[in-house]
Design goal:
- By secondary structure, the protein is α/β, with parallel strands linked by helices.
- β14 and β15 form a beta hairpin.
- α6 runs parallel beside α9, α10 packs antiparallel against α13 and α13 runs parallel beside α15.
- It starts with a helix and ends with a helix.
């Protein structure tokens, strides 16, 4: 009885379940349901069986695949990118700043196939390249360039407005690094001008200054260059050492009492080996064939300047024979040997100063000046220019190898840039039909004086014309009741009538912000000081220079002078290239952000995101 009851209850429950899922029991099938099985037609059953088979095959196939994430692929990438956690306590052992004087960006393209694997290509292929890197000010000279790199701002704020400029207070020309209050160290005569140098004219701090201040003065800052301004300005106000080359009859590195009263033992040891004499004796030769220089102008062309006493500007060069007429050991500055000595000195500084040897980040500032000397003498398209860059490529490989050995690969970070570019020699460009020329003020200065005398009465209205700027006699104008702005506008209109002048810009335009969105005027404004610069600034036509007919120079606001390399490499630097516009003033804040250091106190640049994204 109980068994029958259980059987009945089981059957009744099954019928209810069948009704709930919409599958009528077979006993309810009508004539219309004929040909159906479990409520499906034969065609529906075949389709269902096929779908079941396909799902089974798909499941077996997917079983061999790795588990798929439950979040979209893009979100997974973003999550992976966030793996690196922020750690303000980490920093590299050493920062190395490399400035290649007068290096145009296009030299990297031109010499690419001739570069080896451990120098420029190591930086470019494993570091972050800023492909559209410029100076956002003019004039583009060596002093302002080095100051801007390390201060993260422009001459308007750091005060180094040129290499030399007219000083209104003294009525004399002043040099950006000269300091009467210090003495020469490293030569017998401490009064020699060659060593009386410092950064005292620079009004802002540098990245090295901030590194020292932030570490209780324990971070070390060492700077080296052929040029005094290439060492003192990057070294900043608090450098432990700044060294530059004294050629003439010594061929030694020297410094000033700003930094030390006596050369350190390791510097004396370096000088004792007479590296300069060895380099002078070796001369300057090339092993390349003429076909290897196919992209350059022929050797000994009329657009190059020979060494004094030399018959022509052609390889090989007997440097010993030429040295007496070219400043003794100073001739080495205009050869690859100058860069060799700077790199060798920098390598000795690693050991001599124990750079990168403790837990505090140090700074080594290297300025390679010989590329500038060669460019000025031989121009942008010479065999000599090509040779010095290929030689520099090998020197960089040597330097990087020594850094790996002394500090450890991955423990140091560096940047490489330039302090300005250079124009193609107009004489060369003219020879193939380019519309360029040489700028000569001619009678313009006399005409300006004559106009001011006629309009305001006789007087010394123009005190100085230098760096393409007119310096008015402001005290005389105040005494005579002459409106300065009116006088500036008057001279502006006259200057713009002369051939070769693109524009004339007044101080009033720059102080009032009247730049009208003009990028050239804005560059002039960034390089101009209301107290120290001129009253009317001349911008000459693109491609024109004020220079001799051989070699080249720089200083303009145009791309051949402003577009320079900027490459970051090493500790925490990703690889790649960015073509977003970056400026020279962005280097210092980028390094400050990377190593977690304060920015220089007048910094107007901004960190380059492509360098910091890792």
């Amino acid at each position: 009885m109980n068994l029958r009851l259980l059987t009945f209850l089981f059957a009744f429950t099954a019928l209810q379940a069948a009704g709930q899922i919409g599958l009528p029991p077979s006993s309810q099938n009508s004539k219309e349901d004929k040909g159906k099985a479990n409520g499906y037609t034969n065609e529906q059953m075949e389709r269902k069986n096929q779908e079941t088979l396909e799902r089974k095959n798909s499941a077996e196939k997917n079983a061999t695949r790795p588990p798929q994430p439950r979040i979209p692929a893009k979100a997974a990438e973003q999550k992976s990118e966030r793996k690196a956690t922020t750690n303000f306590g980490e920093h590299p052992k050493l920062v190395v700043g490399i400035t290649v004087d007068q290096m145009r960006m296009d030299y990297l393209y031109r010499y690419w196939d001739d570069f080896g694997s451990g120098g420029f290509k190591r930086l470019i292929q494993q570091g972050m390249v800023c492909g559209d890197h410029h100076f956002d000010y003019a004039p583009t000279y060596t002093g302002p360039g080095h100051a801007s790199i390390y201060t993260g701002t422009t001459p308007r704020l750091h005060g180094i407005i040129a290499n030399d400029w007219y000083d209104r207070n003294t009525g004399q020309s002043v040099y950006c690094a000269f300091d009467e209050t210090v003495e020469t160290v490293g030569l017998k005569d401490a009064t020699l001008r060659d060593g009386k140098m410092s950064s005292h004219r620079m009004k802002s701090s540098t990245i090295g200054d901030e590194m020292k201040l932030a570490t209780g003065m324990n971070a070390k800052v060492i700077a080296v260059s052929m040029k005094d301004r290439g060492a003192t300005l990057p070294g900043g106000h608090l450098a432990d050492g700044a060294y530059w080359f004294y050629g003439k009859d010594k061929g030694h590195f020297i410094t000033s009492s700003k930094y030390t009263d006596e050369l350190p033992a390791w510097v004396k040891k370096f000088n004792k080996y007479d590296h300069a004499a060895r380099h002078l004796k070796s001369g300057w030769r090339t092993k390349r064939k003429e076909a290897d220089y196919a992209q350059e102008w022929p050797d000994n062309n009329p657009f190059e300047k020979p060494f004094v006493g030399g018959k022509n500007a052609a390889f090989p060069y007997d440097l010993e024979a030429l040295s007496e007429a070219n400043g003794g050991y100073d001739i080495l500055k205009s050869t690859p040997h100058g860069n060799t000595m700077v790199i060798d000195f920098a390598v000795q500084a690693l050991e001599g100063e124990s750079l990168g040897a403790d837990g505090i980040t140090d700074l080594l500032a290297i300025s390679l000046s010989s590329t500038d000397y060669v460019g000025h003498q031989f121009g942008t398209n010479s065999w000599e220019t090509m040779e010095i860059y290929l030689h520099l490529d090998r020197l960089l490989k040597q330097l990087f190898g020594q850094l790996d050995k002394a500090v450890g690969n991955g423990n140091w970070v560096c940047w490489l840039t330039s302090d300005h570019g250079a124009a193609i020699p107009p004489s060369l460009a003219q020879s193939v039909g380019m519309p360029v020329d040489y700028w000569k003020p001619g009678n313009m200065i006399e005409d300006i004086n004559a106009d001011l005398n006629e309009h305001y009465g006789m007087g010394d209205w123009v005190l100085n014309y230098s760096n393409d700027q007119f310096f008015f006699n402001r005290p005389l104008m105040r005494e005579r009741g002459v409106d300065l702005d009116e006088a500036q506008r008057r001279i502006q209109l006259i200057c713009q009538t002369y051939e070769g002048v693109t524009m004339a810009i007044t101080g009033h335009d720059l102080t009032s912000g009247n730049t009208a969105g003009d990028p050239i005027v804005e560059k002039v404004r960034n390089g101009w000081s209301a107290n120290a610069s001129g009253d009317v600034m001349i911008v000459i036509d693109p491609g024109w220079i004020k220079y001799g007919l051989t070699g080249t120079t720089h200083g303009s606001p145009f791309p051949y002078d402003t577009h320079v390399p900027c490459i970051f490499y090493g500790w925490h630097i990703p690889s790649g290239i960015t073509y977003e516009r970056t400026n020279i003033k962005d280097i210092a804040p980028t390094i400050a952000a990377l190593i977690h250091s304060p920015m220089p106190n007048a910094c107007t640049g901004k960190p380059i995101q492509a360098v910091l994204n890792r």
